[in-house]
Amino acid sequence: MAAAGAPDGMEEPGMDTEAETVATEAPSRPLNCVEAEAAAGAAAEDSGAARGSLQPAPAQPPGDPAAQASVSNGEDAGGSAGRELVDLKIIWNKTKHDVKFPLDSTGSELKQKIHSITGLPPAMQKVMYKGLVPEDKTLREIKVTSGAKIMVVGSTINDVLAVNTPKDAAQQDAKAEENKKEPLCRQKQHRKVLDKGKPEDVMPSVKGAQERLPTVPLSGMYNKSGGKVRLTFKLEQDQLWIGTKERTEKLPMGSIKNVVSEPIEGHEDYHMMAFQLGPTEASYYWVYWVPTQYVDAIKDTVLGKWQYF
Asked: Residues 204-232, buried b or exposed e (16+ Cβ, 10 A)?
């Protein structure tokens, strides 16, 4: 008599376990050499991939461009980022340049900026804002405000060579001619002025000294007609103003062809001086009793040989 089996659709207990046991414990045949090598290689690849997933990403070197890309794209440390800027109108040679410039920069740094804009060497610049701008002081210290006009007077090297060479030659020729003639102070046309003597308000002289032009007009002098005359040097406008009781002549310094002078005999601490306004000696404008310490400064300023401050 056969034993009663499990109902249809039902598996006898232990059948799954037995199947798994058979699957796992079923005897396998020995692997040949090719199969063994393939199995070992697959195991090694799985192990290497697992180790690679655990390693940290390599750090970027300090100088790597990718590392620097995260830095702000602002100006470098040498720029004007974070510095207070001021709007300036730089005027040179009748041309205006609008510039933003750090308020805490010095006059020397401003000259370098002007050089980059105009090509005018710093040594040839006279920079003016309510007078000459000191090289060692900042714009803040001299109270420069936004919108300020900065006047620049000066010539490029090429301009100086082109313009001053004929003047230098003319001045040398004039000196050679003067040496051939009798002293100017003995000539009749000058004696009538010099015989009047020193003006009562003549400026003090310092014999043997050379000084820069004073900040006030040179006064206490005579012109050829014996009238009082004063000289005002308007550096910011590149002009010489010759003032008398009747009127003031405003002359561009570039229009003055030459400047000649000679010590007054018996009063060598004073000079008689002429400004050549035209092509011949007939255009000389004579001034008498010029203090000797200012003679070289007058010539250098008028003829474009810039003084260094």
From this structure: ebeeeeeeebeeeebebbbebeeeebbbb
First to last CA, the chain: 136
pLDDT tens digits, residue range 147-179?
999 989 887 766 666 655 555 566 666 665 655
d(CA 287, CA 276): 12
Q: How far apart are CA 243 and CA 241, in angstroms?
A: 6
Per-residue DSSP letters for 207-232? TT---PPPSS-EEEEEETTS-EEEEE
Specify the length of the chain in residues: 309
Q: Which of 300, 306, 225, 211 is nearest to 261 (CA)?
A: 300
Q: pTM (2 decimals)?
A: 0.45
